[in-house]
Amino acid sequence: MKRKRTSESRERKEEEDRRTDERKEKEDRLSDLRDERKEKEDILSDLPDEVLQHIMEFLPTTQAIQTCVLSKRWKNLWKGLTTLTFLFINGGIRNYNRYLVNHVLSNRDDSISIHKMFLTIYNSTKVLNNAIKYASEHHLQELQLLIMEFKQTPNSFIPLTINCKSLTLLVIYSNSSSFPLILPPSFAIASLKTLLLFNVSFTARDDNNCAEPFSECTSLITLVLERSMHTHSTKTLCISSPSLSVLDMKNILYWDYFEPEIVLSVPKLKSITLENDRFSMRYRFSCTCDLPLLTEVKISNRVYVDPSIIIHWLQIFSNVRMLTICSRTLNMLKDIGLDALEIQPPCFARLESLKIKMHFGMVMSKTELNMVVNYLWNCQKTNVKVMEC
């Protein structure tokens, strides 16, 4: 009996020792985790304010502001941010607009410039105008603007935007399905290098039905127009810029009862993209020069375009080096019978490669494809590469 008690006592002691060891091991692990976390916190604390602010600028501004609860040091760090990103997440549109104006713009460090602003505005012209005015007064360089759910399309902010004389990049996206954003006759921002416009209409300078909105953008390099509209008062759109290098046009609209024209006065143009997947196009191009620097042309039509207009485009851009054209566009040329076509094919003097972008489900035989390619193969070079992609 005594031997049994001794054995049980030994087992209890071993069990207690085992539990003690496990408890100590757990405490050691927790201590290591605390030390590791403290070490990381110390590393973060050692960074200068400018580096922390640079990291914070990758966050939506509302999340960057939430860092103010971390410590006294973080309390005012967000106020020196030069990149502001306003994204609606939840909480109601009215609260979002009020928070934007009353808290962020009113409480940031007023002595610090704003380099970049990504701004989403919901149905408040006052908030929109106040935000643009504030940014203009703080030397804004890049503005990406999303105009959402307005009952009436706002236009009063445009003069405020034009007044941002330090702007180098401007993106305006208006989601109004009823009325486009109306641009003034002149979009005079001399410092602007990149301009992207979605759902806008153009205004003629005088009674000649010609709009020339970009002629005073003397530094413009890249211009993207999507779902932009001709109206009865702007039958002709003149894209004039001494510096423009890249031009992308997608789904350009117009009223059905006139044939619009786009005049290009862009001597430094290197790349142009014409894309249409929603509306049938029949606008014609004319050009004030032979585009001596033209390197790349991309044409993609998912809806019908008159074949004579397609040939006319290719004639205008015949100085190109690399031509990419989709199979649907080639199919439109095939349907009219190229042998009977009165319009002469374009003569490509510098063409080096012809890429054919094949659309999924596109029914076009190799014979038909080769027929169209042979028609377009009117170039002075013999080593042109023809590729399907």
Automatic annotation (TrEMBL):
Annotated SMART domains: FBOX (SM00256)
Domain of life, per lineage: Eukaryota
Annotated spans, Disordered: 1-36
PROSITE patterns to which the protein is assigned, alphabetical: FBOX (PS50181)
UniProt domain F-box: residue ranges: 41-89
PANTHER family in alphabetical order: OS06G0556300 PROTEIN, OS11G0201299 PROTEIN
Listed name of the protein: F-box domain-containing protein
Origin species: Vigna mungo
